[in-house]
Amino acid sequence: MNTDRPLDGIRSIKAKLGLLVAVSIVVAALVAQIGDRAGVPTWLTLPVTIVAALGVTQWLARGMTSPLREMTVAASRMATGDYSQRVSATSADEVGALGVAFNTMAADLADADRQRRQLVATVSHELRTPLTAQQALLENLVDGVVRPDDAVLRTALAQAERLGALVADLLDLSRVDGGRVPLTLASVDVRELVEQAVAEAGVSRRGTVHEVQVPRNLHVVADVARLHQVLANLLDNADRHSPTGGTVTVSAGREGADRWWLLVRDEGPGVPTESAERIFDRFGSGDDAGGGTGIGLAIASWVCELHGGSISALATPPGERGARIRAVLPVEPRPAPAPAPPTNPPAMPYAGSFPTAVVVAPAAPTPSHLTSSTTLPAPSSTTSPATSPTTPTTAPPAVMPLATQESSVPQPVPAAAGASPAAPIGASGPTPPTASGRVPVGEREPLIDSVFGDLWPEAGLAPQVRLLLVCLGVGVLSAALLPYRNMGLALLVVLLTGGTVLWRTSERRASRWSLVTAVVCIGLASLSVLRAADWLMVLAVLLGIVLTVTALTDAKGLSSMVAGAVAWPLAALRGLPLLGRTIGATSRVSVVWPIVRTAAISLVALVVFGGLFASGDAVFGSWAGALVPELAWDSLIFRFFVGFVMGGALLAAAYVALNPPKVHRVAAPAARPVARMWEWVIPVGLVVALFVAFVVAQAAALFGGHDYVRRTTGLTYADYVHQGFGQLTVATLLTLATVAVTVRKAPQETPRERLVLRVVVGALCVLTLVVVASALHRMDLYQQAYGFTVLRVLVDAFELWLGLLVVLVLVAGIRLQGWWLPRAALVSAAAFVLLGGVLNPEAWVAQHNIDRYAATGKLDVAYLSTLGPDAAPTIVAGLPRDIAICAVATDPASGDDALAWNLGRSRASALEVGPAPAAEVERCATLRAGGLHR
């Protein structure tokens, strides 16, 4: 089986498509099932399943569509005149048949193009020689150098006749493969015809003597003019290749009752065996020593086929010299129905000389590209034999000048040095892009390049073997360190290693923004060893990803930051061409695959023989158990999934660092300001008025107290403040969006327009800060009434961050320049997470609940028991031991090794709080169910 095209043996494209879909589904289901059985989380199983299904689909579909891709590239090159391209047609389906037909067409087109060029060159040479001599003769006559006597005029006439004969040959050649050609049949005396042809040939310029050996009683039925063409061309060919003073012998005779033969023999060098068939092709002459055009024998072959006969070059007997051209023709060609008479029938030579009957002989079949024959052009409707002494009564049609014909045909692209003239597409590897990033002429733009276009071009990227190996190494490191360990030092090592790889790969690593983000990301990563709260690390990793992609892509605006974040997962698709080139480059490195192959074979040998010896000998088995860790299949699968996801994610990010997208082009287009100021002032002014009304309502509720709220709303104050917190948060977000739209649409040409913008937007932002303060006050009151939770603290932090953004907007409004706002907002968010990690939010929540317990006697023990190890020291220090036992998790750091070390878990494990005694279990369950009330 061909691993590159595994489905070549299937004969139906529909069956291939169905099999492709089925195999992809089976692979996806199998990978998902393996991950589920091994206990791999869904967020790890899903990407591996998708990649596996897409990989199988790509593997199968590439072999199915590669002939189509090759044909697209070849057709593009053929459009420029390069007919040397071929496609790999190994498939048994319809696409394979199309590839075979395409190769046949390409070969025929290449042959036709070669013949056309050879025709132009040869005809130009043949026309130039007599024209030059005739021009010199006429100039001598005009200048009086020579006198116009009979000898001079005969010379001029001979030159004109030679030109006429060449033009007649070309006209005849144009009919060769044109279909059904009419023949004017008549009774022919072969000896008389041969003697007439010999007499017209006369003594050649080499002094060749013609000898006729034809019986006098040989009569056949044939087209006289066409047979005359055969004789004239054979004699001319023999004369040109005969030595000076040589003899050309023409003989003929019967061959059976219904066939006769014609033989022309000379004393020249003869026809090589390997050229015996090719000499009857157009321009198929064995060599150019005779000065021929290579079309005479093609015309002779065509005439013989029209009569239902054949022509061939006989082998020269041993000890003799010369070529032997033998034609075998029927005595009476079989008549065929005559075609419809042409509009302007050409005049036939020798008309009236013999009784005639018109028949139509089928044209010779079009040769295949596998033979040496060549497809010839369509026939002309004009008949003008080369050697006819009769002047046609109808003028031949005008013929396009050769120069025009030459310019109307595309020129071929020269093949690269050393390349095969018919090399398959892709035989020499992919064509690298040009320096400008454009696809070379004749090359088809890759699909992925066309999808991403100018937003994410890839030009001049060499294979990155070292980078690929480093990312694979980080994946292996992740698979070895992360599974079956709590968050801690191992995660920090993996994050710092991956970050170092990205920083070294990035072309912007020396920029100020990259250095700032690197420092912030190190701080966020350090939370993995500082705090044990998983949710805090999730926020830190997500913010670290956003900071990383903004540094790699140099994103400045909000839309460009979003585009940069989306670019990371899309890099798994955009980087596939580079990954393919890199994997291909590894096969050219002599040491890489031998190392991999040796390691794989060695591992298999160790597993097989080691397992046999360990199971067969107790002592050896004890040694093996001490040296080899116990790795179950579930563990290996889980580690593979972790390593694949981590290595793949790092490889995608490395591609963004190596070839960042042009995220700045994703920015929204410049908005067109409104024509009149009141068009934006009125709507924004109404929003400001609503904010003012809300502030007044807050003041009324604040000064009116609980009784006023209950009397006007029917709600308790706690329910009142809790009811509106979410709406106030949304209002803050919408205010920021309103400010952004206002700044884009408000005109800022004059100082008055800019002043109005500052005043209105500034008032709106100040009122928004009042809303933020109201929201924070409401949440504080609600927590005092119902207790503190991590989620409520996070909501408080988010609202406080929104308030900080409003302050930043106020600062930007002073000079109406806000290009720095998106990056400032991102850094401030990271600062909030870092500050929260340092302040230990879970301990803060625990402490405030303990303070509330001290003040009110109310304590949610069940919620305290859900807090992580970070809160354990605070709980133990702030609560009585009998309550702390019920509120602290038992032995949070059990099973941790050095690579799983974490400060929060380490401090919690140092507490002298063991599991609740059996007598206390029921009491702890009661406390968790109903809480604690004093």
TrEMBL record:
<feature type="transmembrane region" description="Helical">
    <location>
        <begin position="535"/>
        <end position="553"/>
    </location>
</feature>
<keyword id="KW-0472">Membrane</keyword>
<protein>
    <recommendedName>
        <fullName>Signal transduction histidine-protein kinase/phosphatase MprB</fullName>
        <ecNumber>2.7.13.3</ecNumber>
    </recommendedName>
</protein>
<keyword id="KW-0843">Virulence</keyword>
<dbReference type="InterPro" id="IPR036890">
    <property type="entry name" value="HATPase_C_sf"/>
</dbReference>
<dbReference type="GO" id="GO:0005886">
    <property type="term" value="C:plasma membrane"/>
</dbReference>
<dbReference type="InterPro" id="IPR036097">
    <property type="entry name" value="HisK_dim/P_sf"/>
</dbReference>
<feature type="transmembrane region" description="Helical">
    <location>
        <begin position="17"/>
        <end position="34"/>
    </location>
</feature>
<feature type="transmembrane region" description="Helical">
    <location>
        <begin position="488"/>
        <end position="506"/>
    </location>
</feature>
<feature type="region of interest" description="Disordered">
    <location>
        <begin position="365"/>
        <end position="440"/>
    </location>
</feature>
<dbReference type="InterPro" id="IPR050980">
    <property type="entry name" value="2C_sensor_his_kinase"/>
</dbReference>
<keyword id="KW-0808">Transferase</keyword>
<feature type="transmembrane region" description="Helical">
    <location>
        <begin position="513"/>
        <end position="529"/>
    </location>
</feature>
<feature type="transmembrane region" description="Helical">
    <location>
        <begin position="755"/>
        <end position="777"/>
    </location>
</feature>
<dbReference type="InterPro" id="IPR003661">
    <property type="entry name" value="HisK_dim/P_dom"/>
</dbReference>
<keyword id="KW-0597">Phosphoprotein</keyword>
<dbReference type="Pfam" id="PF13687">
    <property type="entry name" value="DUF4153"/>
</dbReference>
<keyword id="KW-0812">Transmembrane</keyword>
<dbReference type="InterPro" id="IPR025291">
    <property type="entry name" value="DUF4153"/>
</dbReference>
<dbReference type="GO" id="GO:0004721">
    <property type="term" value="F:phosphoprotein phosphatase activity"/>
</dbReference>
<keyword id="KW-0902">Two-component regulatory system</keyword>
<dbReference type="InterPro" id="IPR005467">
    <property type="entry name" value="His_kinase_dom"/>
</dbReference>
<keyword id="KW-0464">Manganese</keyword>
<keyword id="KW-0378">Hydrolase</keyword>
<dbReference type="Pfam" id="PF00512">
    <property type="entry name" value="HisKA"/>
</dbReference>
<feature type="compositionally biased region" description="Low complexity">
    <location>
        <begin position="365"/>
        <end position="393"/>
    </location>
</feature>
<keyword id="KW-0547">Nucleotide-binding</keyword>
<keyword id="KW-0067">ATP-binding</keyword>
<keyword id="KW-1003">Cell membrane</keyword>
<keyword id="KW-0346">Stress response</keyword>
<feature type="transmembrane region" description="Helical">
    <location>
        <begin position="678"/>
        <end position="704"/>
    </location>
</feature>
<feature type="domain" description="Histidine kinase">
    <location>
        <begin position="122"/>
        <end position="333"/>
    </location>
</feature>
<dbReference type="GO" id="GO:0005524">
    <property type="term" value="F:ATP binding"/>
</dbReference>
<keyword id="KW-0904">Protein phosphatase</keyword>
<dbReference type="InterPro" id="IPR003660">
    <property type="entry name" value="HAMP_dom"/>
</dbReference>
<dbReference type="InterPro" id="IPR003594">
    <property type="entry name" value="HATPase_dom"/>
</dbReference>
<keyword id="KW-0418">Kinase</keyword>
<feature type="transmembrane region" description="Helical">
    <location>
        <begin position="789"/>
        <end position="813"/>
    </location>
</feature>
<keyword id="KW-1133">Transmembrane helix</keyword>
<feature type="transmembrane region" description="Helical">
    <location>
        <begin position="724"/>
        <end position="743"/>
    </location>
</feature>
<dbReference type="Pfam" id="PF02518">
    <property type="entry name" value="HATPase_c"/>
</dbReference>
<dbReference type="InterPro" id="IPR004358">
    <property type="entry name" value="Sig_transdc_His_kin-like_C"/>
</dbReference>
